[in-house]
Amino acid sequence: DIQMTQSPSSLSASIGDRVTITCRASQNIDQFLNWYQQTPGKAPKLLIYGSSHLFGGVPSRFTGSGSGTEFTLTINSLQPEDFGSYFCQQSYSTLYTFGQGTKLEI
Amino acid sequence: QVVLTQSGAVLMKPGSSVKVSCKASGDSLSGFGVSWLRQAPGRGLEWIGSVTPKFTRTEYGPRFKGRVAITADGSTNAAYMEIGSLRSEDSAMYYCARGGGIGGDWFEPWGQGTLVTVSS
């Protein structure tokens, strides 16, 4: 299996801050990396696919980058609705695997 | 756009089986893969398995092979996941999502989740 490791596991930030979450793969996954946001009590929602492509309707303050084994999700100018958990997921292998998550708190 | 609606929460005995349904509305499921995932309380996301577009093939995570069956029915536009030999560690929120079964894919949208509790 391809192991995905996120850092940090938790993060405190304020409204208006810029935050960056990192995801590392145990092997090369090209750009087959997706990011999801989950707010408490809700199902996850896709934010970014293919490392850097913003899914429809997702605000432009979310950006993704990276290839190979190292990827980042950046949120510019944090808004109240951005607080929750974020997960990366590789789709290079159809034995899909997720990072353990990053909890973003106020 | 497709909306996925899952069956309701269940309480199951250890050793029993449970079948969770995922009904699609607004679009056909057969043009896309369908995947099942789960999340134990306070934990991360775990992929269980997927059925490929047109429902031609299924693939399962190593931890679930032999214990889980994913099926889909084009006539009812629904997918199903059955998990057997339930144990307490299987207590989790189970989600279906459109996507999966092919490389480079992603999961979106997701169903609302089905809480499965395994307890004697």
How many β-strand runs of chain A? 11
Distance between the termini of chain B: 40 Å
- CA radius of gyration of chain A: 13 Å
Which structural category fits the helices and strands of chain A?
Answer: mainly beta
SS content category of chain B = mainly beta
Would you summarize the structure shown here?
The complex is a heterodimer of chains A (106) and B (120). Chain A has 106 residues and is an all-beta fold.
What does it look like?
The complex is a heterodimer of chains A (106) and B (120). Chain A is mainly beta and 106 residues long. Chain A has strands spanning 4-7, 10-12, 19-25, 33-38, 45-49, 53-54, 62-67, 70-75, 84-90, 97-98, 102-105. Chain A is globular and about 35 Å long. The mean pLDDT of chain A is 97. Chain B is mainly beta. Chain B has strands spanning 3-6, 10-12, 18-25, 34-39, 45-51, 58-60, 68-73, 78-83, 92-98, 114-118. In chain B, strands 2-10-9-4-5-6 form a six-stranded mixed beta sheet, with no helix packed on it. In chain B, strands 1-3-8-7 form a four-stranded antiparallel beta sheet, with no helix packed on it. The termini of chain B are far apart. At the A-B interface, β5 and β10 of A face β5 of B.
Question: Which helices and strands appear, and what pairs or packs with what?
Answer:
The complex is a heterodimer of chains A (106) and B (120).
Chain A: E1 4-7, E2 10-12, E3 19-25, E4 33-38, E5 45-49, E6 53-54, E7 62-67, E8 70-75, E9 84-90, E10 97-98, E11 102-105
Parallel strand pairs in A: 2-11
Antiparallel strand pairs in A: 1-3, 3-8, 4-5, 4-9, 5-6, 7-8, 9-10, 9-11
Chain B: E1 3-6, E2 10-12, E3 18-25, E4 34-39, E5 45-51, E6 58-60, E7 68-73, E8 78-83, E9 92-98, E10 114-118
Parallel strand pairs in B: 2-10
Antiparallel strand pairs in B: 1-3, 3-8, 4-5, 4-9, 5-6, 7-8, 9-10
